Structures are given as structure tokens and as C-alpha cells.
Amino acid sequence: MTLFESLAAAIEGRVTTKADATATDRDWSQITRPWNLQISQEDAVAVVDVDSIADVQQTVKFAAAHDLSVSTQRTGHGATGNAAGTILLRTNNLNTLEIDATSRRAHVGAGVLWGRVQTAAAEYGLSGTPGSSPGIGVVGYTVGGGLSWFSRKFGLAGVSARSFAVVTADGERLYVDNETEPDLYWALRGGGGDVAIVTSVELQLHPVPYLFGGRMMWPADRAHDVMCAYQAVTADAPAELTLWLDLLHFPGSPTPLVALDCTFLGAEKLARQLLSPFDSIGGTLSDSRATMSTAELASITGDPLDPSPGISHTVPVRVFDEGVMAALLREPIFPLLSVQIRQLGGAVSGANDLPNGPLASQHLVYLFGSPTPDRSADRIRERISELSEQLAPAIGHGKPLTFLAPGETMSAALPDQSVRKLATLKHRWDPDRILRSSCPTPAVDELVGAEHTVR
């Protein structure tokens, strides 16, 4: 019996190695690929599709016994290529979902995607705190911070996480909340999945009796006007209102565009009053704004559901002012597909006990390109670097871990004290570093001087 045959015999799920793929004429790159096709994970040693929590336990114990690492992945939207020598543990089949309308709680397995949660919760007039795509895994999004359409009102996704079921690096099952292992609970509410494997999460849902949202679109020559309106409206917007401004240049289109995406947790009449500066711009190409169900959030931006390549970088911006506008409008965004400015503030900037802490910056600028024959990966990276440099005078610090790009470290997203605490917890819960996330927690000796003690 070969090494991985012994694991296959011990679990209910499926174990696949490169040798298995070769023997059955399957493409190893396809088997290991994440959602982001720009990232290769061919250097993983095996893929394990688990069917149960017991499978997760057996896989972790196997990895520990054979000096291997385990990297948990549902979709791979946030994959960074950190899979060398690991067992890719796929949680797709841990797909239980229960909505308790009385307590307004959702019990969500690690294989569940946000679209399913939103559809189920909407039947009761409730909502989670999802981002723009229904195809994102709930658990990975939550442990990575999770910036939602509704974060200005309800906080980052970790705020809504009430408890976690986990498997630790020694293969034991554990229930974690604010009273049971509170430090581990803190780490999982935005500190990444590097300290324990989350098999399910209990989320607090929120009543949303009214929701207004949609997208307005103009030709790119109206971009400065749209930016000025964005600046004015976001300056004193209530926490129920969230705006995302998009500079867009779709593949195959000779004409760049500018868009304004919005949600408002309230009635349409007040939403339209708050958004009236955009109505006076003129030249609107389309306007999909309307009262909608929380299950329809994905229709606003129309994020792709099929795997595709992407290269991105996100910079926090302290204030959206004329200098930022000038930097973004100095030249066309090509070869990027989009430059998106996401409004922060509200509950995101308020006091909280998450690893991110309060985010002082008022906006995130998300630079994104998707390589095509006329948009090379190298040129996309160059353009991202150029724009980042032009934005440098306005750049602040802090963002959810889900916005980290390959090559960035945890310190680019979290405060120093949170990184130090996470390193200490990693040392305590996984001293042999068996578990590995897309953004690894640094080792204690890389951060902590002799005056600090690891407990």
C-alpha cells in the first residue's frame, strides 16, 4: 500500500495524487486549480475531497505523521499559490445549511457558498453580510475578514460570526466561541484560516425589511463628474448606504465606462434622495437601481461565476479627494479591467474586537486585470504598480485579509499587535505549522524580541 493509499482507506472522501491523475489520463493542473486561473497549485502533493469532519481529522493526523502540510480550500478565489508540498483539502461536500429564523442564526458548513445562504435567509426577511459574488465560500470569506455590501452598517463579516466548529492541528474537534477558547475565536474572525480548520460557522443574520440597490453606468468622459458626486455623497452618507465606484474597460470593448454601484438598507424614496447628485450628471447609459431582495445582490455587479484568471492589488485610501481623482483619471486604466473604489467608514471604522480593528481609511481602491491576448499579465502588473505609485500620497493602512495579493504579507492588512498575537496563537495551536492558509501567519521568532514571552 502506497503512502496516500493508506489515507484513502481511512476516509470516506476521495484522495487524488498526481500519479492517480496520470494513470487515469486526467490533467493534474485542472484537478489542483483554484477559482483564480492565474494561480497554479500543481506543486500540491495530493487533493483530498472530504465528506465529513472525521475525514478532516484523519487528513490532518496523516499530514502530521508524514511531515506534510494541509491547505484548506473551498473555491480558491483568494488562492495565492502557497500550496507547495501541501495536501489541498477541499471542503465542497461539507455543505450543510440551517436557518433558525427565531434566533436569526445560520449554521453554515465550510462547503456552502454565499448565494445559497442569501437565498435561504431572504425567505425570512434576513440577510448575512456577503460581498459582491454569490460564488464565494462563506467560511473562507468570514475568517479572511469579509467586506460586505452591508459592512458599514453591521461591520466586517467576523462581527457576525457567533461560533466556529474547528479541527485543530492535532486532529481534534473543538467548538469555539467568545467563552470557549476566546483567543482562537478572535483569531478566526478575520485573522485567516491558519490557526485551525473551520468546518462550520454560526452566523448572526440581520433583518432587512427593505433593500434598494443597483448600478448606474455612463461613458468614461463623465468619470470626473461621477467621482465628484461620489465624494459628496460619501462625505456624510448614513451607515445604511454603501457606494462602490467603478472605472471599467471590458475586454473587446473599445469604449471605457464608469459605473456607480449602490445598496441602501431602507426605502426607495430616501435612497433616491440620497443618491440624487448622480441623477443630475446626465448621459446615463443604464440604470438598474430598484427595490430588490437580498437574494439578488449578485445582480448589481454581475461578478463571473466561472473560474477565470485575475491579477489584483488593493490599496486603502485615507480620504477620497482631488489628488486621488487626478491619479485615477490621469491615463486610461487599460489594460486593467476595473478600478473599483469601495466606500468604508461606518461600523468598519468603529471600535471592534476583530483582528483588523477599526479601519481608519475611508475607501479601498481595488485594481484588477484579467489577462487576455491583448492584455498581458506583465502589462497588467505594470499598470497596477503605476497606479499604486500615483496613489501613494493618499494610501493608508489596513484591509481585510481577503484583499491580500500574492506576495503580500499579513502585515499589509492587519495592525502590528494583531499580527504578533496571531503569531503567538499559531505557535500555541500549531507549533509544527501543519496548517497553511493562503496568507501564512509569520513565526513568532520573526516578530517577537527577547522581551516577549510566548505562552
From TrEMBL:
Keywords: FAD, Flavoprotein, Oxidoreductase
Keyword flag Nucleotide-binding: no
Oxidoreductase among keywords: yes
Cofactor(s) demanded: FAD
Ranges for domain FAD-binding PCMH-type: 40-208
Entries under Pfam families matching the protein: FAD_binding_4
Family: Belongs to the oxygen-dependent FAD-linked oxidoreductase family.
Name this polypeptide is given: FAD-binding oxidoreductase
Organism of this sequence: Antrihabitans spumae
